[in-house]
Amino acid sequence: MNINDLKTITQLEQFLTGTQPIDFMVASGQVDIYLDIQRTLVKFRYPSLDKRSKGVVMRFLIKITGYSRQQITRLIKQYRDTGKIERQQRPYQGFERIYTAEDIRLLASLDERHDTLSGPATKKLCERAFTIFKQAPYQRLAGISVAHLYNLRKSKCYLRQRFTFEKTRPKVALIGERKKPRTNGEPGFIRIDTVHQGDQDKQKGVYHINAVDEVTQFEVICTVERISELYLLPAIEQLLDCFPFVIKGFHSDNGSEYINYKVAALLSKLLIEFTKSRSRQSNDNALVESKNGSVIRKLFGYAHIPQQWASLINEFNRNTLFPYINYHRPCYFPKIITDSKGKVKKIYPYEGMMTPYDKLKSIENAKNYLKPDITFEILDKIALSQNDDQAAEQLQKERSQLFKTINERDLKSG
Q1: Could you tell me if residue 171 is inside a domain?
Q2: Nearest to 184 by CA among 358, 369, 31
Q3: In a domain, 91, yes or no
Q4: What is residue 406's three-state secondary structure?
Q5: Is 158 in the same domain as 106?
Q6: d(CA 405, CA 312)
C-alpha cells in the first residue's frame, strides 16, 4: 500500500503501530514537506476532527516528517489561521554598522603607537585628535564609548593588524656544562631526576629526588615536600652523603630545580662536576628515568600523596628502601661490543646481572673510590645482615605500614 492510500484514521493508527505495510518517500525539500503536511491536513479535514483523531494525525505527521511535536504544532496552527502552510523567512534585524574597517585599522594604529593604553585613555586620544588637532579620520572614533572600544579591539580586523609573531629568545643559563659525563668505568658519576607524586584538588603531592650512579647503579631516593631551595638543597646533601663512594659528577636534565646558582654553588663547594643534558639528546638522562619507572612508580604508584607525608616517606627510603635496592635487588649491566663494521652496541647478558653493591666490589681497586670513613667490612655487614627474601619481606611490610598510616590519618583529617 502506498502512503497516499491512507484515507481513514484507523489506517493511520495501524501505520503508527506497525501493522499496516506502507511504502512512502520522504520529501527532499522543506517546501515539499510543508505541502505534504498541508495535503494531509486537508485530506483528513483536521479542524473538524475530535481530539483523539487530531492526536493520531499529529503523531503520523511527526513520524513521516521527522519534525518535533512543537514544530508540527506551529505548522498546524498556521494552517488553521491562514488555510495554508508556507515557509516564513524571518527578516534579519541587525544593528546598523557605525564603525568601518578603516576606523578599526585606525584604532589599531593608534594602539600600536601608544602601546595599547586603557579604554578611557584611548577614547580621550581619539577626542583630542578630532577636536584639538582637527584630524578628520578620527571623527567617528571621537564619539565611541569605552565599552564598544574594547569590542573593536576583539574584532578580526583589529587582531589581524595587531598580531605580531616573534621567535622565543632563548635564555642562556651559564650553569653546568652541556655534555655527557665520561666515567671511564669509575663510580661516583650520578644521574639525578625528580618524580612528582600527583596533584589532587589543585594540591601538589610529594616530590621524589632520584639519584643513580651510572657505573654501579647505586640508587638513593629522597622525598621532599616541595622542590624549592629550602627543601631541595638539604635533600641533595643527604643523597650525596648516602653514597658509599666519593661523588665526582652530578648530571641532571634542564629543570630549574637543579639549574640554579644555589645548587651550582653547593656542587662547586664539594668539587663535583656539574653537567646537564644536551639538546636533542633524549637518552642523556635515560638511566635515572628508567629507574623512575622500575623503582619509584612500582613502589609508590601514581596516586596523589599529600606533601605532609614527605618526611615519613623519606625515613622509609633511608631505612628500608636504600638497603634493599642496593644490596639485594639485582640489575642488568651493559656490555659494550664492537661488530666487524666498527659499530658499537650494548648488550645485557644474564651472566652480568648483579646487585649494585656487588658491581661496586667487582671494580678494580674499588676500595680506592670509597669515602674515607667507609670500608668494605662495614658495607659487608649491611649486605649480609639479611638475605634477599628477608629484605624484600621487610620492604613489603614497611611499605604496607607506611600507606596504612597515610590512609588512616588522611581519613581522620578528612
Answers
A1: no
A2: 369
A3: no
A4: helix
A5: yes
A6: 10
